Structures are given as structure tokens and as C-alpha cells.
Amino acid sequence: MERSAIIRANGGPDVIEWIDVDLPPPGAGEVRVRHTAVGLNFIDTYHRRGIYPVELPSGLGLEAAGVIEAVGEAVRDWKVGDRVCTFGPQRGAYSTARNIEAACLFLVPDDISDEVAAAGILKGCTTEFLVERCAKVQPKWNVLVHAAAGGVGLMLVQWLKHVGARVIGTVSNDEKAALAREAGADHVILYGNEREDVAKQVRELTEGRGVEVVFDGIGMATWETSLDSTRRRGLIVNYGNADAPVGGVNLGILAQKGSLYNTRPTLFDYYHHAAERAAGSEYVFDMFRQGIIKVNIGQRYALEDAVQAHSDLEARRTTGSTVLLV
């Protein structure tokens, strides 16, 4: 009998419940994966809260690593014993084992640990597409990264420095500021209640011009700061809603602030085709392997402590990546 988390209603972390599951054999095109480590991501909280609506009841979690235990019909590229990981789009990673479509899997290289794969594949691929294919960041650009000590934030800082950008990060406290600097941030700003202070400092650091790109995973709370920090014809990339989604925006504000560009990209539109998925994941694992991108696992929880993990993540008590261990 396996254990799996489900939600029957949207709400706070306490809507997560654990049930016993008797898994059937994997169907055609599926494999059964026994999980060893599960990645915690903000998107899990969006599904739980209903920010990204899902049909209820629903499983939770997109990111996990483990070992294939059984293979269904018509699966040719995978075998029992293969070490694999996934970042979705199928939910249900909060489980001891599950049946999953083989097309959703990536092979974990021998020199990459299960914890690193589970903590890093989603955030790493997110970082890759944001920097390389969405914003197409160039050397010497000024770039602002909100929540620079978070899981994606730390990877963004490292990747941006690798491509030669000048990175300004925002964080909420001194401990997180130290992490952002360690990752390579050139300047770190502690944000408080006065959002204007951040934009003012960004302008001072860029001789009044503003940054070419803002990476904003927070949402509504930082929207105005992002607008005021971006240079003429610059780009704001809203890739998450850690606070709340940006809504009710008059597009004329983009003209008023300097003919700005704004995009709200999703990972699965950039990892849509098999060739994109293969090339992107290989690039990410190579960045891990070379140590260019370090996967900072700031905290580990037992799998069934997911309620506490969600509470800590939303209260900003976490740093770097978080894994749930099976």
C-alpha cells in the first residue's frame, strides 16, 4: 500500500491530507516510479490555494526523483532500475510511488544525486528558459531579481552571472542577503514596506537608467517596484505569484513607464516539444555538474510533513530549495 497526498478543497496547508493508495499496474505508456525525494515548489501552493485551478480532488506536487519499478506496454525508452526525475505536468509527486506517463520523465545522470535532481530539475529548467530563451539576457545587462534567495532566485543569480549580467537582488532579511551575495549578486537590497525605496536604489545603482530585465516571482506586491525599476523599452518577466497574481492592469501603464514589455511565461510552453525538453534538461544537468549552478537545499522534511513545509514556504521561513524525503 502506498501513501499519497490529496486535496479535496482549496485553502491553506491544512487542506492537505494523506491517504492509502493501492496502485494498479502501470498502463500503456506509463511506468511506476518509487520516489526517493520530492521537490517543493511555489506552484504546489498555487494548486492548493486555487490560484491555478485544478479539478478536485487532486494530487499535489510536480517535481520528484526516484527509480522505475515497473514498465507498462508500449514503453521502449525506459527499463526497471532506471533513475529518473520529472517536473510534471502530471500532479501527484507527493507520494511514496505512482504511475506516471513515461514521456514526462528525464534520466538522472549517475553523477547527480536524487536530492539534487528533485530539488533542482524544475527550478533549473525554469531558470534556463527564463534567462536563455525568454529574456535572452546579454552580457553587461543590468538585471533585477526579486526574492533572490529563494529556490529559483538563487539559481537565477548564478545563471545570470554566468552569462555576464550585473545582478541586483531583493531579499527580506540579512540572512537571505548573505545567500544572494554568496550566489554572486552584485548588489542586494532589503525590501520593506516602502516599495519606492527599492526602485529608487535600483535607479541609483544604474545611474538613473533602470534595469534591462526584471525577474519577478512575487507578483502584486512587487509589480509597482518592477515598473519603476525598469529602463525604457525594458522587460518585466512575471514568472510567479508568491504574493498574489498581478491583475487589473491598464496596459497604458507600460507606455507611461517607458514603452515597457511584460510577459507571463510558463515552463511548459518552453519545454513543450520532446527536443526542447531533452536539450533544456541536458543543459541544466551540465550546469549542475560543472558547479556553475549550485542547488542550495536549505531544508529537508519528511514526506508527510508537507503541511509544515507549505506553511514555512509561504511564511518565507525557507531559503533555497526544499525537498521532502521518502
Percent of residues in beta strands?
25-35%
Give unreliable regions as ranges.
none
The biggest beta sheet reads:
7 strands, mixed
CATH superfamily of the largest domain, by name, is Medium-chain alcohol dehydrogenases, catalytic domain
- Work out the helicity level: 25-40%
CATH class of the largest domain: Alpha Beta
Global mean pLDDT: 95
Question: Quick one: how many beta strands?
Answer: 16
What characteristics describe this protein?
single chain, 326 residues, alpha/beta, Quinone Oxidoreductase, Chain A, domain 1, seven-stranded mixed beta sheet, six-stranded parallel beta sheet
What does this structure look like?
This protein is an alpha/beta fold and 326 residues long. It has 2 domains: 2-121 and 271-325, Medium-chain alcohol dehydrogenases, catalytic domain (Quinone Oxidoreductase, Chain A, domain 1), CATH 3.90.180.10; 139-264, 3-Layer(aba) Sandwich (Rossmann fold). It has 10 helices and 16 strands. The chain has helices at residues 42-49, 114-134, 151-162, 174-183, 195-205, 220-229, 252-256, 267-270, 274-290, 306-314, and strands at 2-7, 16-21, 30-40, 58-59, 63-71, 83-86, 97-101, 105-107, 142-145, 166-171, 187-190, 211-216, 230-238, 261-263, 297-302, 321-325. The strands form 3 sheets. Strands 3, 5, 6, 7, 8, 15 and 16 form a 7-stranded mixed sheet that branches. A 6-stranded parallel sheet has the order 11-10-9-12-13-14, with helices on both faces. β10 (166-171), α4 and β11 form a beta-alpha-beta unit. α2 (114-134) crosses α9 (274-290). The longest helix has 21 residues, at 114-134. The radius of gyration is 20 Å and the shape is globular. The mean pLDDT is 95.
